[in-house]
Amino acid sequence: MAIVLFILIVDQVVKIYIKTNFEYGESHHILGGLLNIQFVENPGMAFGFEYGGALGKYILSIFRMIAITVIIVFLRKTLKKDEINLAFIVCLSLILAGAAGNVIDSMAYGLLFDRGGGYPGIAQWGGSYAPFLQGQVVDMIQFNVHWPEFVPKLGGNLVFSPIFNIADSAISIAVLAFLFFPKRIIPQETTV
Fold first, then answer.
1. List 82, 105, 114, 168, catalytic entry
2. Which residue out of 11, 82, 105, 139 is catalytically annotated?
């Protein structure tokens, strides 16, 4: 659970710092220009994908909360077993932390901050811009790596254009690990 708490704390500290210190759309290049820190918000899923307006946002948030509950129950049962696959625990913890980090944004940011979505200026504590579960998710990380010019149809474009956050990264790392190393990560018996 230390992994979950660490990722949640870092995710929320970074999001709150960005939201209260960057103007919407403000961008800074770091690591020699390989990475952009650009403040955007999205109402939907990872990497800015949306799902069906306000109702879709409620459905997505409820799905995330159910997934969080299932993962917690599954982790608790798994940790009680004699043999523990550490990689499996780490991957589930990454997914749990990522889902929880984005649910916190949806649950609380609309109630805690005075503005969300595209806006001029810097957000302030207080006020409210959206009801419970309708807050915007703060995103800020973008890879600034372009395809070489000689690559047909892709040349000059970003290799990966979505802007994401630490919570999205945690989920993505776990999913990629499950996809590329399933035999090492997924225990033979995975019953809830």
1. 168
2. 139
pTM: 0.85
Query: CA of 106: how far to CAs of 18, 57, 73, in Å?
Result: 16, 8, 23
| pLDDT (tens place) for every residue of the chain, 192 residues total | 899 999 999 999 999 999 989 999 999 999 988 899 999 998 766 555 566 678 888 888 888 899 999 999 999 998 888 788 899 999 999 999 999 999 999 999 999 988 776 677 777 777 788 889 889 899 999 998 888 899 888 888 888 888 999 999 999 999 999 999 998 888 776 555
Rounded to whole angstroms, how far apart are CA atoms 67 and 136? 20
105 given a catalytic annotation: no
- Retrieve residue 160's tokens: 């990966």
